[in-house]
Reverse transcriptase domain-containing protein
Amino acid sequence: MALWERMLELYNECWRDPLKIPKEWAEAEVISLYKNKGSKKDPGNYRGIFLLDTIGKVYASIVNEKIMKVADVKIYDGQFGFRKERSTAEAILIVRHVIQETIDQKAHTVLAFVDLAKAFDSIPREKLYEVMSEMECPANAIQSVKQMMTENVGYLKQSKECFLMERGVRQGSKEGPGLFNIIFDKILKETFADSNEHGIVMKGKEVIRLHHLEYADDLCIIESTVKQMETSLLKLQENLRKYGMKMNLGKTKWMSVGKNNRADGEEEKIMIEGTEIERVKEFSYLGSVITEDGNNRPVIMNALQKGRQTLARLKPVLQSRNIKMRTKEKIIDCMLMPVLHYGLETLVIRKTDHDKLMALLNSARRITLGYNDRKECKVEELKNKMRIENVSARVQIKRMRLWKRMQRRNGLAKKIVESKVEAKKKERKPAHTKSWLRQIERDMKDLNISNIEAWNSRKPAYDPNYKPRLLGERERNLKCPNDHCERKFAAVNEMNRHVRNDHNDRKKETSETKGEAKNQMELIEKFRCPMSDCNKEYKTKGWLLRHMKECHPSYEDMAVKGDKVKNTKIDRNATSINAQKEGTAEMHECPFPNCNKKLLTRKGIIKHCYKIHRWSAITNKPVRPRTAHAIS
């Protein structure tokens, strides 16, 4: 029985009777990693990584699929974490659009970025099972989750010590994020039960009341006034305690966007349980900087700072001579480029900002190619020498992929982007404002896209016009030199291999084979010595350089510099080869009447005129003698 058949039989048995799930699937090996901040003696500055059994993780992913088929439809559409066809870009885009529309309509919006203290480790498991039953998840799936969470033991690496985990979802598991989304959705639905009293109104094709966005445990609450925001945070703190969680008030921040409606001009505050929530002008939301005035410059500066740090770490690797150029290009493409263009598809990039990003990319190209100065190699040459896409092209493709995904889902992100913030007074929108949707229209024109749904953003893995040529289709003109053997071959090395292996007479048969393949060997490209009086020919440029050093040391540079002397190769056509041998090829004559010198190439005539006649065949003028400098 194959391995996959045994695994399938085991999984089916565990699904029918969850009590038969092996206990080893609930055990985890714990590795602690330093967070690179704070004292190394403080245990709080380490992150625990839980390594689970691989066979058990496959079964957990099956259980998670069955749970999410039922729960994903009922979870709030504003949850973008650990769900199919959703990403951080959509949540960031919604926040940017709300801020921009609030400023354009001269309205007032308050944003709060809530941080939860140990969210995944604090959930009571009995509450989790109740919420799963309310969502009508499969009974076998609930029992399987219970069985995998009972006796959930963690073992410290290289130690016999272990500890029992009785709260929260399993760290490092496949089903953990989905289970957290289920219970967190329940908490937020209780918090915003009276949806007409919370959030802001967005008017478009539909009237939408937006009050919060989620990405796993990263929560952004949106209200129209500071008082409503304080009420929402108090309700949230109360509901979180019912489920064993709480807010981290020290890391929770809030931001006021647009026109403040307070008449006395006094600065407003938000107090939660006697603790004042800090007000900020900019905040890093899901890794992208959000500002209260909608300015994109901090986003670009943050990307440049992270890009420089990444480039500094990669510099020894890019300068290494033991790594191929193609590998270095992949390193830049996989490690530097994502840092540069993360989150940039959610905003409109100005030309000055694009130039700054390109300057950093060009510096990475110079480091890779070994240039120390900008004057050594121009930007166009850098682009031609390295196969790396520009930042603008990469961001453009990412923006179009995001828009295509939003169109296909037709969810909250698309509806919000196509709507406007409701304002009490109708204000005229500034003409200079560049909308994200207008940028999408420009991108579609640049990429010549008429229908976004039919557009394929992925490059084909192969050339559709390429027709592979099989080895068996080659012409076999070389016959084995043995009289009793009638085999034919397409290449000399194949025939030599046959003679060595099948006839066991290596010396005799190899020499005869070389004689039979003389015509075949003449067709190989050869590098000819650039000196007119030398007829040496070599298969590679390296042997030609060695010949120039030994035989023509004064003219060694002529073979090294490819722009002065190109490698002359014998034509593959047999007629031209015979013509050169028989002397019937076209010859170049010396222009001087008393000289009967004839050479095969014009370059040889140029050198002949320069050496013998001191005449330049290019300018048709005599060569000036070199002036001797006086020695003082």
About this structure: The CA atoms of residues 282 and 291 lie 4 Å apart. The chain has five domains: 3-291, 297-446, 472-513, 523-582, 586-632.
